[in-house]
Design a protein that fits this description.
The chain is of the alpha+beta class. The chain is about 40% helix and about 35% strand.
């Protein structure tokens, strides 16, 4: 049930589904106009997880870490995070799925799109350091 609802929300906001696997509860979506590429959405009851890969760190850099943590304070939905290996920077957001509505889903996607549009130059700079 949740998987189908999420799929409908994805299509309703005009995003393209590049990949889906109902058994694993995974979608990979994109929208060129919003700058969103390969956004992974995981339906993992009781939560819905959004993860967007941003860049790979070449080495630990305290200035980058500090800047990302400071920017987390400004982000309305979601936050920057590191993957388990500590090498890749991602955007991550989690929602409760049992009461998920379209407006919540759309707000999460819009938050990522806004972040990518407003902070893209800085993210590109970080990816080169």
């Amino acid at each position: 049930m949740y998987f189908l609802n999420v799929e409908k929300y994805i299509l309703d906001i005009g995003y393209h589904i590049k990949y889906k696997n109902r058994e694993e509860g995974i979608f990979v979506i994109e929208n060129e106009a919003d700058g969103v590429h390969n956004l992974i959405i995981g339906v993992a009851t009781p939560v819905l997880i959004f993860e967007q890969y941003l860049f790979t760190l070449k080495e630990d850099n305290m200035e980058v870490f500090k800047a990302l943590l400071m920017k987390n304070r400004d982000i309305i939905h979601g936050a920057f995070a590191l993957t388990e290996d500590g090498q890749r920077v991602i955007f991550r957001y989690t929602l409760q799925i049992h009461r998920l509505d379209f407006n919540e889903f759309e707000a999460a996607i819009n938050s990522l799109s806004l972040l990518l549009n407003e902070y893209s130059d800085q993210l590109i700079t970080f990816s080169k350091t």
